[in-house]
Amino acid sequence: MEFLETLYNEVIGFLGISQALEILRSGDYSTFTTYDGIVSLIYPIIPLLLILELILGFIYKKPQAKVYKVNFLIYIFNRFVGRFIAIAMVALCIGLFQQYAPFQTTMTWYWFIYGYIVWELGHFVYHYLGHKVRLFWCLHSTHHAPEDMNLSVTHAHFFLEAPYADTIRTTVCILLGVQPEMLFLIMFIDGTYGAFIHIGENILKNGRLGFLNKIILTPSHHRVHHAKNPLYMDTNFCNLLNIWDKVFKTYQEEQHHIQIEYGITREMDSGNFLDVYFGEIVALAKDVWNAPGIGNKFRYLLMPPGWNHTGNHKTAKVARSAYLESAKAN
């Protein structure tokens, strides 16, 4: 009986409807007009879209079963292993760094815009490092391993990635004066939209969202980010506002004539949970073990994926530069 109750709570938690159910049980439907009520109605949107996406996959005969299976296993594993670590890191960073902020924002629309731009800076920094530092890539690669795009990819993360990401994003925001209440609001909005941009073609064939494609980061931009095509590698690091990608010249539009190839460049079995979750860590450990000299061993930890002590580098920067040179020549 206890197992069934636990299972029920997990399902309700995954669907994001626990808060809405509590309001319905209370009978006070006016609560839905409050902030908490609105949040309770937003939470279930992504899980319900994920279920719709899965159903449409079977209807369209594009079920992407391998991706859903592995991402489901990752979700279950992370629920047991890293449930509260990220929350603890956010609280720790707020306590440590808020006293050093030169000023504090207030809950006004103009400070909210400021706060969101600062949050996107923190997100860019964490995300960029996740692609350019191999040790951090070991945490992030799990998210890029799926060879199709759908909403289940939202749950494909190594359990230590959220603490690492939130440590950087929270520290940047708190040091630049974003008050905790505003930070949590931004995190909620960003988390919801950050899940939505993983929506697959079974629901949204064209991910460009019309004129919004020129203003914000859309599913089309994020599909480019998840691609292993040389032109697309290591681009579009932002989440909603693509301002920092444009500032740091990592912005890339989806090209109609280039078919997106999802996944990572390392040869792997994307249907194998262990390879998806731990494969990059194993590959890094082998390179460090075989590297000559302590200096090269440390370089393998800190240099980008594809760096090689022999000078025969196969980094994303090398691959993209070679592609651009070839395209220019032709």
Automatic annotation (TrEMBL):
Domain Fatty acid hydroxylase: start-end pairs: 113-250
Residue ranges the record marks as coiled coil: none
A Pfam cross-reference name: FA_hydroxylase
Name recorded for this polypeptide: Sterol desaturase family protein
Keyword annotations: Lipid metabolism, Membrane, Oxidoreductase, Transmembrane, Transmembrane helix
Record carries keyword Oxidoreductase: yes
Bilayer topology annotation: Multi-pass membrane protein
Chief location of this protein within or outside the cell: membrane
Highest taxon of source: Bacteria
Gene Ontology MF terms in the entry: oxidoreductase activity
PANTHER family: ALKYLGLYCEROL MONOOXYGENASE, STEROL DESATURASE-RELATED PROTEIN
